[in-house]
């Protein structure tokens, strides 16, 4: 974080100083909410959780090097006491962002946010110092924590914004006002909470409404609900996609033999060939979104294409491909799942598995509400249409819908199976995998199917050739 005195921080957040011998002492380290992450010069924000009260770790944090604690009550060590720590954290982030003057890029969407954010960050940091959201810390706590990691030399700040209801993105854009706002898509993720795709579009569109007239809205030309958001902003609009009307578009899209996308990138400044290191055709749209942002920030088509071709995955369990010594390939995409990302992952599996036996180990897609049965059934059917070798549906009711959809689509019989839990899936796979097989593991985060992928990697020596 940029160096700020405790007196300045107290003024910014409207807090009272307690047990602070020197108000001019400066916070220059990271702002953290876990006392185990404290470094010299940190500010420790003490949140009260369901099971843990951060105030109980205030003394530990200071002994570890924190200059002070942001707290809701005096804690016996140097502290800035506020009415609400979350509100104070947001106010501090707003102050730092405005003081820095870095170009702030914000993005949202129903699917692909984290992968696209990682691509944008890698492209932009090839040009100038860039700070970006780690993992999926895209909520009212994670976003300000990310913004506060920016320093005086930060040129670009790339922030992922999530929403679980109307008004959430408006709140986040108030904390960190964007200059460029990117909306990827409007899908079915969290549709059970929102009530419908139109409501999701209303929430996601809050991002473009927050843009200044001199800003830029980057919108998906291939998604009608996103494209319609052009009417909700006073900012310049740039379109990306495979549509011929897109300002930044892809032509001659194809997959390599290993399932990695390649295409000709077209921008208003020129064209250049891209061959990505990531897996799955769905990354083409993500790459075009990143290219549109980079173009707006002055990068040439050649610079963008080179950076996209060199970019890798920065976040765990998102199409994370590992080949075991015995030739079995594990594709760990178990961080989360919704109908759009599930379909994309299955298509990637089909492309990667040409000439090989493929397995789809799938679990529940959460928060689909009344659409849950139809969406799980549809994913099971798609697995059959894509000629996936075997579906292993893991879990309870939703998994049974996956398996039933597959069975009804192709009368798979023994080619689709429903197992009760992750361990049962591991046991099945250990007994039946053979060298050369490709295994996709994917479900909503709550299912915890990353344990299946890890167990298969830990068991890499157990599969005999047969």
Could you characterize what this model shows?
This protein has helices spanning 6-13, 58-63, 85-100, 113-124, 142-147, 168-175, 191-194, 197-204, 206-209, 224-227, 283-296, 301-310, 339-352, 372-385, 397-410, 422-432, 450-458, and strands at 4-5, 16-18, 26-27, 31-32, 43-45, 68-71, 79-81, 103-108, 130-132, 156-160, 180-183, 216-220, 236-241, 248-255, 261-267, 270-275, 320-323, 329-332, 358-362, 390-394, 416-419, 438-442. It has 466 residues and is α/β, with parallel strands linked by helices. Strands 9-10-8-11-12-13-14-15-16 form a nine-stranded mixed sheet.
Q: Which helices and strands occur, and which strands form pairs?
A:
Elements: E1 4-5, H1 6-13, E2 16-18, E3 26-27, E4 31-32, E5 43-45, H2 58-63, E6 68-71, E7 79-81, H3 85-100, E8 103-108, H4 113-124, E9 130-132, H5 142-147, E10 156-160, H6 168-175, E11 180-183, H7 191-194, H8 197-204, H9 206-209, E12 216-220, H10 224-227, E13 236-241, E14 248-255, E15 261-267, E16 270-275, H11 283-296, H12 301-310, E17 320-323, E18 329-332, H13 339-352, E19 358-362, H14 372-385, E20 390-394, H15 397-410, E21 416-419, H16 422-432, E22 438-442, H17 450-458
Helix pairs in contact: 4-11, 4-12, 11-12, 13-14, 14-15, 16-17
Explain briefly what this protein structure is:
The strands form 4 sheets. Strands 9-10-8-11-12-13-14-15-16 form a 9-stranded mixed beta sheet.
How many whole angstroms does the radius of gyration measure?
24 Å
- In helices, the fraction of residues equals 25-40%
Q: How far apart, in Å, are the first and last alpha carbons?
A: 56 Å
Shape: globular
Question: What would you call the structural class?
Answer: alpha/beta
Report the portion of residues in β strands. 15-25%
Biggest sheet character: 9 strands, mixed
How many helices in DSSP terms?
17
**What is the residue-averaged pLDDT?**
93
- Uncertain segments are 461-466
| DSSP summary, beta strand count | 22
Order of the strands making up the biggest sheet = 9-10-8-11-12-13-14-15-16
């Amino acid at each position: 974080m940029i160096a700020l005195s405790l007196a300045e921080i107290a003024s910014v957040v409207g807090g009272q100083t307690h047990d602070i011998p020197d108000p001019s002492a400066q916070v220059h380290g990271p702002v953290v909410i876990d006392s185990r992450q404290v470094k010299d010069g940190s500010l420790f924000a003490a949140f009260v959780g369901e099971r843990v009260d951060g105030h109980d770790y205030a003394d530990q944090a200071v002994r570890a090097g924190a200059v002070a604690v942001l707290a809701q009550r005096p804690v016996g060590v140097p502290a800035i006491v506020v009415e609400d720590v979350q509100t104070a954290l947001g106010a501090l982030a707003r102050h730092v962002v405005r003081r820095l003057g870095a170009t702030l890029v914000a993005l949202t969407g129903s699917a692909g946010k984290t992968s696209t954010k990682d691509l944008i960050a890698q492209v932009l940091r090839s040009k100038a110092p860039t700070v970006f959201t780690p993992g999926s810390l895209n909520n009212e706590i994670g976003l300000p924590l990310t913004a506060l990691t920016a320093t005086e030399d930060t040129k670009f700040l790339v922030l992922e914004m999530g929403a679980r209801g109307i008004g959430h993105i408006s709140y986040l854009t108030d904390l960190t006002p964007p200059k460029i706002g990117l909306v990827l898509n409007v899908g079915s993720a969290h549709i059970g909470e929102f009530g419908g795709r139109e409501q999701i579009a209303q929430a996601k569109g809050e991002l473009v409404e927050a843009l200044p007239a001199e800003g830029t809205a980057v919108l998906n030309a291939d998604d009608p609900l996103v494209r319609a958001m052009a009417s909700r902003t006073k900012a310049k609009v740039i379109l990306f996609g495979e549509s011929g009307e897109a300002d930044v578009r892809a032509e001659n899209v194809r997959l390599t033999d290993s399932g990695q996308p390649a295409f000709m990138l077209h921008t208003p400044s020129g064209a250049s060939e891209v061959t990505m290191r990531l897996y799955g055709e769905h990354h083409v749209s993500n790459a075009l979104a990143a290219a549109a942002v980079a173009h707006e920030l002055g990068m040439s088509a050649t610079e963008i294409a080179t950076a996209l071709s060199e970019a890798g995955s920065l976040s765990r369990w998102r199409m994370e491909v590992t080949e075991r010594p015995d030739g079995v390939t594990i594709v760990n995409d178990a961080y989360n799942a919704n109908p759009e990302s599930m379909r994309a992952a299955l298509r990637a599996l089909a492309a990667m598995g040409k000439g090989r036996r493929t397995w789809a180990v799938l679990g529940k897609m959460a928060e689909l509400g009344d659409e849950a049965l139809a969406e799980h059934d549809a994913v099971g059917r798609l697995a059959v249409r894509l000629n996936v070798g075997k579906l292993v549906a893991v879990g309870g009711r939703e998994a049974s819908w996956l398996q039933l959809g597959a069975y009804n689509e192709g009368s798979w019989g023994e080619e689709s199976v429903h197992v009760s839990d992750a361990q049962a899936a591991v046991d099945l796979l250990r007994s039946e995998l053979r060298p050369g097989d490709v295994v996709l593991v994917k479900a909503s985060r709550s299912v915890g199917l990353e344990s299946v992928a890890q167990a298969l990697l830990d068991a890499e020596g157990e599969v005999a050739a047969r």
